[in-house]
Amino acid sequence: MLSLTFMQLDLNLLTVLDALLEEGSVMGAAERLHLSSPAVSRTLGRLRAVTGDDILVRTGHSMTPTPYAMAVREDVHRLVRQAHEVLSPVRELDLAGLDRTFTIQCHDAATASLVPVLVGRIQQRAPGVQLRVLAENSVDTDDLRHGRVDLELGGARPGLPEFRSEPLGEDRLVVAMRADHPCAGQLDLAAYAAQPHVVISRRGRLTAPIDDMLAAQGLRRRVIAAVATVSTALQIAARGDALVTCTAILGRPLIEAFGLLVRPLPIESPAATINCNWHQRYDSDPAHAWLREQVRASIEEITAC
């Protein structure tokens, strides 16, 4: 008997053996596999050499499986079916039966505005899905790479080719302030620069791109604090004269919750891009693709309001 290691094992041997045992003849197996009869005969010879068994023996005008062949018939059929399932995964998604937990990481403004819409969409369509929402980290992590996070939502885009990024939309910058703020009636660039400011930065930075724009105009603002979340910044604004520069659409629920008003940013500034980031391992995962579709639809819903 020939000896085969696992790495030398040819899956085609099992496929042909399964067809031979199902059809009971070389010709029938050849027709089933769309092969020539000589090709199947050669594979039968290899099977006999590997197993040390005749597999099929002639009895008159037909062929009869050996006791060994009869004993392994169900196992062979099961292995071939399982191999087919592994190599030909089902791409159709059963939303009603989908049982999965997705983890999304985003800043608190996206949590307040996007997540309620997203949870509602998911529960309507796939009630077995759970959503876990994490706050942004103050430092970069490998959570996306190692699968601890399924999606990152925010302004940043990963630079490495193993990550994917899709822009979901844009959000203009506005200035939030308390309703009776001295600048509530009118906010020009000089008044904007003269007021105290709170900067939103997960890394605790006391400057932002807006400061470079002000510097180009010969102006400089006074930053009194840098905080990690939009909600903290808006709480400070609600209690004093500090201004908060934030996104209009994603920040709207928190702005309204603190009873603040918004004014246009008194300087031309690029809109903030809302990016969806994920690892390439999920490119062909139907459930993950569906999640991305729901996030995209949720963003479209809140931006249309």
Number of DSSP E strands:
12
CATH C-level name of the largest domain: Alpha Beta
Q: Overall mean pLDDT score?
A: 90
Number of domain modules: 3
Q: Per the principal axes of the C-alpha atoms, what is the gross shape?
A: rod-shaped
Count every helix, treating DSSP H or I runs of 4 or more residues as helices: 10
H/E topology pattern:
HHHEEHEHEEEEHEHEHEHEEH
- Classify the helix fraction into a percent range: 40-55%
CATH topology of the largest domain: D-Maltodextrin-Binding Protein, domain 2
Largest beta sheet: strand ordering? 4-3-5-12-6
CATH architecture of the largest domain: 3-Layer(aba) Sandwich
Question: Which regions are unreliable across 5 or more consecutive residues at pLDDT < 50?
Answer: 1-8
How big a fraction of the residues is strand?
15-25%
**Main structural class:** alpha/beta
Main beta-sheet annotation: 5 strands, mixed
> Taking Cα atoms only, what radius of gyration do you get, to the nearest Å?
32 Å
The CATH H-level superfamily of the largest domain is Periplasmic binding protein-like II
Distance between the termini: 74 Å
